[in-house]
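Notes from hallway chat w/ T.B., transcribed later so I don't forget. T.B. wanted the structure written out for a chain they're using in a teaching module, and asked if we could keep both sequence and structure tokens in one place. Agreed to drop them here.
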Amino acid sequence: MSTVHLGALCVYCGSSPGVDPAYRTEALALGQALAANGSRLVWGGGRTGLMGAVADAALAGNGKVIGIIPEFLQNKELAHTDASELLIVPDMHTRKREMFERADAFCILPGGVGTMEEFFEMVTWRQLHRHNKPIVVLNVGGYWDHLIALFSQIIAKGFAHSGHEALMTVVSRAADVIPTVEQELAAPKPLLSFTIDGVSAFQRT
């Protein structure tokens, strides 16, 4: 199977480093891998925590990083002024739209409620056939175990259909993110089809 090159990866992650040094280690490894692969990093534009780590590593490898940050967070998240491109936008909605449009795929690293909100929006849009871009969960040290289990719980309790777990792919190492994404870009997953009250909501396309 031929490989499709990843042009740009949108990374969602925390503006804090977290308690486990492995979180930062994997963030750095992902930034390094993006630079080595010639793939652009699209991220929230901050220079603190894991956000800063992934961007710093990509920049250190002469990679291109594109930060998108809303004006009101410019000081709170300490905007990364060394970014290859730093776009200041008026609000969170514009930020997320710009990040979506500039990326070929998405990856979630450890983070908080903001990280989860961004991740769930991309998963929801994929479920609703607004896109079919790869979504990768980088489950460092089991950080996202409960999130992954929640998807199974949602299916088991009848609020999603079997197969919805395929909306995302889980890996445990930063080294696996780019190969996983490029494999899916070369052979895209089929869009999900499901029914609501017995009526087909979306057909596979």
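Follow-up for T.B.: The mean pLDDT is 92. Might be a good example for the class.
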